Amino acid sequence: MWRGYGKTERESGGGIQENQLTNEFDKRLNAVAAAGGDLLYGGLKGIEKESLRIAADGSLSMLDHPLGLGSALTNRYITTDFSEALLEFVTPAFETTWEALHCVCDIHQFTYSQLGDELLWPASMPCWIPEDDKIPLARYGSSNVGQMKTIYRRGLGYRYGRQMQTIAGVHFNYSVPQQFWEAYQDILGDESSGDDFRSEQYLGLIRNFKRMGWLVLYLFGASPALCKSFAGGNAAAMKSFDDETYFEPFGTSLRMSDLGYSNQTQSRIHISLNSLDEYVRDLGKAIATPEPSYEAIGVKVDGRYRQLNANLLQIENEFYSPVRPKRVAESGERPTAALQRGGIEYVEIRSLDINLFDPCGINQNTMRFMEALLLYCLLLESPKLNDEELREITQNQAQTAKNGRNPDFHLRRIGQPVAIREWASEIIVGVLAVAAELDRHDDTDSYSAAVRLKQELVDDSSLTPSALIIAGLEEANTGFFPFALAMAKSHRDYFASTVQPDDVASKKFRQEARESLQRQHEVEAADSIGLDEYLTQYFA
Questions:
Q1: Quick check: 13 pLDDT over 70?
Q2: Phi, psi torsion values for 523, nearest 5 degrees
Q3: Cα separation values, 204 from 194, 301, 453, Å
């Protein structure tokens, strides 16, 4: 029976002894290597990193988006997510992990130069936050598109609660190198159009990533504890670390548990990943299907929009998924329309927690591992998903998020229990083979070393970020809030010690801030219809 995972023989010491990859994966990787050139090297990587602005005392900022950061609507590098206080840093797509990391660092440095006494919260689970109605929504000006963005967020608040929307994360965007596709299509003997072939292969990657997504939570989860001011989900049912902190002793990523982006209403939405047509069809259906509990909220009440509509999803982006197929949309184009126009262009991985111990929230080794993992998912056989396997995937993710470091924890694999260490090691064998191929480009060991580091975390769960956070709380004899606040101050000091206010990057971001304000003004001046008509046309 197909398993979708590599096999490994291990000694009691825990080291990888030999690769016994699935025959088809082995054949594909060898064929890619034999095709000449660096077919796997140079895929484009981009980072979207969210950070809450906080006051000096660690409470959620109530101040407007800093003017020095420009327009949240039109700035290409610095915008906001749900709240006026929830910044989102966006890098361009780069061929190397170093370029992507350098850009993230530059954005942090520039942002701190505009924050005054405020700090950036360094964790995925939020700081001390007030009740829902006190959390400020992000504002984008008076244009139709700006108002629509705020209405959408108001709807999220009504539907899921504003506190839940203050949870932050890191998104890793990745596109396979362009030179790979034609050669790979020849290897597989596929005669479909280039766009159709690429989309089909990306969906295979996504299905395999769904199957293995629990591994990302185990390796990179950094939210095993949270401040008790967060009352979302089932937080009160968790264990108390102290008077101010909830935690799960073996938790990895509470952000990705039922406390965070997993919720009961969305669990009833089934979006197929078996073909692009099915994916677009199911998302469109969810956006057009009324939901009684949302109808009770109302859409436009006393002349004010509470949400964009009363359907299962207001827009495509409301569907929470650890991974999304993406294409850059043209102005005014809906995401599904963009996918229909040109097929899948890249994938967006949304399950990475902010690394509390890293000033930028992510590092090169994380990016290198993720790139090799995604290429492994691409080259591996990827059967269509059925309902039974989808339930298994959901269960594996939920249980890994809350209990993944438990020595007795077992995942479910095609109906059978399997130890998380065993399955993770099998996957890493294949990922390491891909990393070795990536390293051929410049005759280094950087990708392979990044993967081997993650095998150490599989062998010893006390080395994972989530375990280190719990150990840090115990060692400092303090709760999550003061621990994270101290880390926020150390990150601020780090960037202050390296900032160069007149360097090229700072000048670039200052210019972008000024120009973004002008672009927002132009967008507002260009509106020729009212908001009601704009929304009608958008959803038509």
A1: no
A2: -65, -45
A3: 15, 44, 27
C-alpha distances in angstroms, 421 versus 3, 61, 95, 414, 456?
A: 16, 41, 32, 17, 11
Per residue in 263-309, pLDDT (tens digit) is 566 778 899 999 999 999 999 999 999 999 999 999 999 999 999 99
Residue position matching structure tokens 């909220």: 297
Q: What is the pTM of this model?
A: 0.94
Residues 502-537: tens digit of each pLDDT: 688 999 999 999 999 999 999 999 999 999 999 999
Question: How far apart (Å, rounded) are the C-alpha atoms in residues 97 and 363?
Answer: 9
Cα distance between residue 29 and residue 273, in whole Å: 24
Instruction: Residue count of the chain, please give it.
Output: 540
Contact between 371 and 45 under an 8 Å Cβ cutoff? The reply is yes
* SS3 annotation, 72-130: CCCCCCEEECCECCEEEEECCCECCHHHHHHHHHHHHHHHHCCCCCCEECCCCCCCECC
Q: Rounded to whole angstroms, how far apart are CA atoms 532 and 540? A: 12
Find all residues with CB under 8 Å of 398, minimum gap 6, and list them.
257, 258, 262
Range list of β-strands (E), 127-203: 170-175
Domains annotated on the chain, with CATH? 7-539 (3.30.590.20)
- Closest to 173 (Cα-Cα) out of 345, 16, 309, 302: 345
CA distance 215 to 221: 9
Per-residue burial over 258-283, b = 16 or more CB atoms within 10 Å of its CB, e = otherwise = bbbbbbeebeebebbbbebeebbebb
Please report, as a single letter, which amino acid is at residue 536: T
| Terminal Cα distance for the chain, rounded | 46
Tell me the longest C-alpha to C-alpha distance in the chain: 71
Which candidate, 190, 173, 172, places its Cα nearest to that of 181?
190
In 3D space, the residue among 435, 429, 426 whose CA is nearest the CA of residue 375 turns out to be 435
Of 464, 463, 451, nearest in space to 425 by CA:
451
What pLDDT score was predicted for residue 6? 40
- Cα–Cα distance measured from residue 35 to residue 180, given in angstroms and rounded to the nearest whole number: 10
pLDDT score of 442: 84
Tokens of 506: 């700072």
Backbone angles phi, psi at 414, to 5 degrees: 50, 50
